[in-house]
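User: Sequence in, structure out. Go.
Assistant: Echoing your sequence, followed by the structure tokens.
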Amino acid sequence: MNNEGYEVLRLVSHGDSCHVGSDLVTGTMLFSWVKFHPQIPKEQLFTWIATLFAMVEAYHKSGAKAYNFISPLSIVVTEKEELRLLDLEVPSSRPQRTRMERRSFKEQFYPGEEKFYPDHDSDYYSLGMTILYLLASLQPEKTLSKKEEIYLKHLISQCQKFKFTQRKSLKVVFKERSPKPSKSRAVLVILVVIVVSVLGVKTFAGSGQKETVKEQAPAKKPKEKVTEKAVTNEAVEEEIRLRFHTGMLYLSELQNYRKAGEVFGELFSFYEPAKYYEDIATFLSGEKSIPPKEMEEILELALTNYPPEEELSFDDTLIRTWARLDTPTSRKRLIEVAESATTRSEELLLNLAGAYAREEEKERALECLDELFETSQEALPLEAYRHRAVLLRECEDAREAIDLLTKACELFPQNAELPSLLVKYVGEDEGRSEQVLQIASDQVSNLPALLKDSEFKKVMKENGIKEEGGKLCYED
């Protein structure tokens, strides 16, 4: 993992106001950092969460309507493992903004269209989903206590529901505190104070308040029992929902199918439709062989039983699974869902092009790949070049196919398939010519191992080319 330079926000608070500037730091995007640091000290986890709330609160004090893009791709982990918010207004942040604007990513960290509006509440929703991402991606070195787990679940739930004033559950979770808290508990108490302040709730701490509550306990006993029971029931419901969120995060965005299968498998006894998602995860991981017809039915059942409040995008996972199935029915469904998508990701366009090509709709397949090459802001995979070149050739645009393969050979100098295809296409157009011989020689010069590649040797033979004295020449 390489550290890079990022322009981040410098937030300087003055009472109820905040000045926003810019700093240049060396670090790593949080999205990448967690992949290389699966474990984290519990104290650091709570410190990070408290820092995130504090930064968002400070940014709002500046008078800005909303930061609007809070996610693991807008948070930088510095070399000192401190968190900073990316400055999204500078040109250098454009790659991160482009990735965040993809629907497959955006729908996991931002409110749905019917709820989305760029204000402070939407920032807290995104912050809640980012905390959920941290909990799903990181394993604290010390296990979270039950109170800590319940607190974090309620915190995330309140952020997701756009409710920042009703935090009565905090009093139940933290009404008993040790006189000498451990380091992790001390950090958690700091986090509670920050969050309660941010969300507009009165702080609750101090021996005097505790004594008062204790003295009044007999008169309020029935009400307290009801409150604790309600919180317990709510916690169970939220745990089921948050586990489903976590499973979908592993399944759709992180593509950790083994972990997704474990999460949905544990959830099955509480929420029966989780079985469909477990089957999808195990199918994609290759751990379970499911007949195509049965898998098609499972996908339809998963769609039918998708929780209405669940706002994570499932389209890319569906398309990925249908592409793996590769049956006439699955290709039809893939095309239906992909063509109705409002945002077409790189993966979606590649899978859609593949489905059209296998359905013998080559012009439509080529249109998808043309769109991919025109709109992509990142380096495309080798398969995209190979597939587009083949389609161009089949659609009788030989010149463009050859130009594309020439460029691809430069981008992927260690690949043997592309030079073979290039020499084949040029040979079909030019016949026995110096141009074919020169292109073949140039490719061998760049990659000597081609002379041992079976496909390249086959193409040489088809064009009457042989190797003699370390050079290529035509056979007599």
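User: And one key feature?
Assistant: The first strand starts at residue 4 and ends at 14.
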